[in-house]
Amino acid sequence: MYDIEIENLTKKYGDLKAVDNLTLKVEKGITFGFLGPNGAGKTTTILSMLGLIIPDSGSIKILGNDVFREPVKVKERIGYLPENATVYEELTAWKNLEFFANFYNVSKTEKEKRIEELLKMVGLWDVRYRKAKTFSKGMKQRLLLAQALINDPEVLILDEPTSGLDPEGAFLVKSIVKEERKKGKTVFFSSHILSEVEELSDKVGILVDGKLMALGPLDDIKKQFMELEGYEIKIEAKHPLPELDLEGIIRVERIGNNKAIIFAKNDIREQISDYLTQKGVTLISLEIEEPSLEDVFLKTIYKKE
Ligand SMILES: Nc1ncnc2c1ncn2[C@@H]1O[C@H](COP(=O)(O)OP(=O)(O)OP(=O)(O)O)[C@@H](O)[C@H]1O
């Protein structure tokens, strides 16, 4: 079951296609990392998901509701943290949350309970009566995240949630995202920080120039990448390695006598192992070197044409 369904979304600004025929579905309860370089079209996609900009074509459903035809139904059940969002500086942490809680039709007691719960969760309970203008950037971002969670949303949409934060601030924000996932919430977040996408995402989409260049669990994306770009096989033997001249090998990089990196078209570990056994060479290790997300990302951007 999908919580987010984007189909054939296109948004143009003049001649520029900011989002180009994007189709993307996100399953319930997963964390989806939307990765792309600056200007790729991530924010445009997110604003369309919120019904805040009208695309030229395509449809978007969140929790089964069309975001353009049933905007209120959707907004009640989602939480959104905009890129570069700001808090109300002159209001306290408590008042900032109360302001947003008032948009929802719940009792005062329930509201207060939720605000308390959230302030504790984001580590701002002790400073709840301090004006937001005295907060660090990290504290403000956590307050904004609490704001996005005020209605206990089923789907959380975060546009670059750790942008501009120091490592500790980013760590705290990521912990909150992980907590929400544990509670079964669907999280859609955009980022250009590769390590963060790798750490948080069950599924990843890579957007380049408005086009989706890769989609799926990271392991699948890496596998597809290896099938396309070739395999890097690391080998270490007890004895000096003989000439390696097997089918599928593109090139061999030798490291001393007993070690080598083999670049091959396929996963030919079995053939290598058989060949070396025949030659009386004992293997210590024979491993595939997985590409990093950075390898995949950079090659994807480079290959966009
Ligand atoms: N209101 C607008 N008018 C004209 N062009 C726009 C507008 N908004 C965005 N663009 C352009 O559309 C493209 C996609 O922008 P968008 O902000 O969606 O990218 P992004 O992936 O979110 O980038 P970033 O990571 O820098 O936030 C960019 O080339 C941008 O300059």
From TrEMBL:
Pfam annotation, one family: DrrA1-3_C
Domain of life according to the entry: Archaea
SMART domains: AAA
Keywords: ATP-binding, Nucleotide-binding, Transport
UniProt keyword Transport present: yes
Endpoints of the signal sequence: none
PROSITE patterns hit by this protein: ABC_TRANSPORTER_1, ABC_TRANSPORTER_2
MF GO annotations: ATP binding; ATP hydrolysis activity
Entries under Gene3D superfamilies matching the protein: P-loop containing nucleotide triphosphate hydrolases
Database matches in InterPro entries: AAA+_ATPase (IPR003593), ABC_transporter-like_ATP-bd (IPR003439), ABC_transporter-like_CS (IPR017871), DrrA1/2-like_C (IPR025302), P-loop_NTPase (IPR027417)
Segments forming domain ABC transporter: 4-234
Protein family: Belongs to the ABC transporter superfamily.
Protein name per the record: ABC transporter
Source species: Palaeococcus pacificus DY20341
Lineage: Archaea, Methanobacteriati, Methanobacteriota, Thermococci, Thermococcales
